[in-house]
């Protein structure tokens, strides 16, 4: 079972630079926002898998829930800001 978790961690490590490229070189602000949200989602999965490997899933899931909520609030705040910014222009 540990081999499956390690393969999943490796796949997540391979995917992170792709999303980082989208977050940096995205042609629009929305592409950058999607890239950052994808990075946060992959980081949450990464932490859950590490928790499963170490056997301390409780602590890691608490951290992931907090991180996910921060990601959600940040995305909503950014979307609201961009919505009002477009109506001002």
Short description:
This protein has 89 residues and is mostly helical. Helix content is 92%, strand content 0%. It has helices at 2-25, 29-54, 57-88.
How would you characterize this protein structure?
By secondary structure, the protein is mostly helical. 92% of the residues lie in helices and 0% in strands. The chain is built from 3 helices and no strands. The chain has helices spanning 2-25, 29-54, 57-88. α1 (2-25) packs antiparallel against α2 and α2 runs antiparallel to α3 (57-88). The longest helix is centred in the C-terminal third of the chain and has 32 residues, at 57-88. It is flat. The protein starts with a helix and ends with a helix. The model has no long low-confidence stretch (mean pLDDT 88).
Count the strands? Answer: 0
Structural class: mainly alpha
The outline comes out as flat
- How would a textbook summarize the main sheet? none
Query: Average pLDDT value?
Result: 88
Written as H for each helix and E for each strand, in order along the chain, the element string is HHH
Uncertain regions spanning at least 5 consecutive residues: none
> What's the gyration radius in Å?
16 Å
Number of helical segments? Answer: 3
Distance N terminus to C terminus? 54 Å
Report the sheet-strand fraction. Answer: under 5%
Helix content: over 70%
């Amino acid at each position: 079972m540990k081999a499956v978790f390690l393969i999943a961690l490796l796949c997540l490590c391979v995917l992170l630079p792709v999303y980082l490229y989208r977050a940096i070189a995205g042609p629009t602000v929305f592409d950058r926002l999607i890239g950052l949200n994808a990075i946060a989602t992959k980081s949450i999965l990464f932490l859950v898998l590490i928790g499963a490997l170490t056997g301390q899933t409780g602590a890691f899931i608490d951290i992931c829930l907090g991180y996910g909520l921060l990601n959600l609030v940040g995305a909503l705040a950014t979307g609201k800001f961009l919505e009002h910014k477009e109506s001002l222009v």
